[in-house]
Amino acid sequence: MKKMNRGVLTALSAIGLAQGMKILTHKRVTGEWDLKQVATTGGMPSSHSAGVSALSTYIAAHKGSRHTETALATIFGVIVMYDAQGIRRHTGEIAKLVNDLENNFVMLSKDFPSLEFVEREKDLKELLGHQPLEVLGGAIFGSVLGFISAKYENK
């Protein structure tokens, strides 16, 4: 039986561990245990950042910083992290505004019975992206894991 690609295993491990860490950070912030945090988007640390940082650091430590694979993984990682803290976070902020707007329409429709407004059963999901600190936390965690994985393999 062939072994799984070490870079893939390192990145997937970083993603899984970062998702698990969200349970602990949620407990620290809210004081409540919530196992559902393991399957959420957003939050600390960013599992997207952890995964791409683990992969690019692993490749850099394993192949060298001047290798083409390192360049590809790094550029891919920068794009993913930019998206996580930029576009996805802004999408979540827009969802919050839409949810607030709908709540205002619900209140307004009570004052004007002739106004026909059908309320959605479920709000849009608001926590989609990351704050820059969450992305940084994931990147640091992933980089450490990627470095350790490469050093462990080389022994």
Characterization of the model:
This protein is an all-alpha fold. 69% of the residues lie in helices and 0% in strands. The protein has 5 helices and no strands. The mean pLDDT is 81.
Put the structure in a nutshell:
By secondary structure, the protein is an all-alpha fold. It contains 5 helices and no strands.
Mean pLDDT comes to 81
Regarding quaternary structure, how should these chains be classified? single chain
* Distance, first to last CA: 22 Å
Strand content: under 5%
The backbone outline, from C-alpha atoms, is elongated
Largest sheet composition: none
Helical amount: 55-70%
Order of helices and strands: HHHHH
What Rg do the Cα atoms give?
A: 20 Å
Structural class designation:
mainly alpha
In DSSP terms, counting alpha (H) and pi (I) runs of 4 or more, how many helices? 5
What is the number of beta strands?
0
Residue runs with pLDDT of under 50 for 5 or more positions:
none
Task: Detail the topology: elements first, then pairings.
Layout: H1 6-30, H2 47-63, H3 68-85, H4 87-111, H5 132-153
Q: What attributes characterize this protein structure?
A:
155 residues
